[in-house]
Design a protein that fits this description.
Elements (H helix, E strand, L loop, with lengths): L3 H23 L86 E5 L15 E4 L5 E2 L4 E3 L4 E22 L2 E8 L7 E11 L4 E6 L6 E4 L7 E9 L3
Antiparallel strand pairs: 1-2, 1-10, 3-4, 4-8, 5-6, 5-7, 5-8, 5-9, 5-10
């Protein structure tokens, strides 16, 4: 079959399978319809949930975030109970010597003392007794010409006197600023030598004067002294007023 007839026959044979495939594709029913084909059935029910899967691997740490702002301070908590006393720690090493302190004032700045005795017999009454025998008066705070002690350092002082009584009675008093502070009386016994004494603590201010004085009438001035009998008067500063 050569010639035009043969060529036409060959062309039909090549085109026929292609047309059959196209026709087959065009007649396929929609699979979503109930009657898609003779094998199609009703949709099934949803299946059960599957088992949880295994945990995944830990992820890597992320980058460190920026520091946040400081929060508001909370209220103060209750005080806790006192704990048990701990053990004593080991003894430390000796420290280094401290610096040398400043030089203080000498004690002589606050010295004031005197001790005197009587040299005259029967001193006049109602005037200071002048003790002219000087045992100690280094600061010259006692004036032998007046018989008075003059305070130069304010503070607390101690005064005492020890008197020999002879020939008549004795009435003496210790004065401070023209005022009698203490009194001493001794009644003389004939053919005998008596003793009279007294002591007192006084606070003195600068300029205060202290002395002994016979008081009363002239027959009460039996204060006596000679080469073997003394009548003495003394006083000294106990501690000064530092302020």
């Amino acid at each position: 079959m050569r010639g035009p007839a043969g060529f036409f026959l060959c062309s039909l044979l090549l085109v026929a399978p292609h047309c059959t495939e196209v026709a087959a594709q065009e007649v396929q029913p929609d699979p979503k319809t109930p009657c898609a084909n003779w094998m199609g059935g009703a949709p099934g029910y949803p299946g059960h949930n599957g088992l949880p899967g295994r945990d995944g691997k830990d992820g890597k740490d992320g980058q460190k975030g920026e520091k946040g702002e400081e929060g508001v301070q909370g209220p103060k908590g209750d005080q806790g109970e006192i704990g048990v006393l701990g053990r004593e720690g080991p003894r430390g090493f000796p420290g280094y010597p401290g610096q040398k302190g400043e030089k203080g004032e000498g004690a002589f700045v606050y010295r004031s003392a005197f001790s005197v005795g009587l040299t005259e017999r029967a001193p006049h009454p109602n005037v200071p007794i002048r003790f002219s025998k000087i045992f100690y008066n280094e600061q010259s705070h006692y004036d032998a010409s007046t018989g008075k002690f003059l305070c130069s350092i304010p503070g607390m002082y101690y005064f005492a006197y020890h008197l020999t009584v002879y020939l008549t009675d004795v009435k003496v008093s210790l004065y401070k600023k023209d005022k009698a502070v203490i009194f001493t009386y001794d009644q003389f016994q004939k053919n005998n030598v008596d003793q009279a004494s007294g002591s007192v603590l006084l606070h003195l201010s600068t300029g205060d004067e202290v002395w002994l004085q016979v008081y009363g009438e002239g027959d009460n001035n039996g204060v006596y002294a000679d080469n073997i009998n003394d009548s003495t008067f003394m006083g000294f500063l106990l501690y000064p007023d530092l302020d």
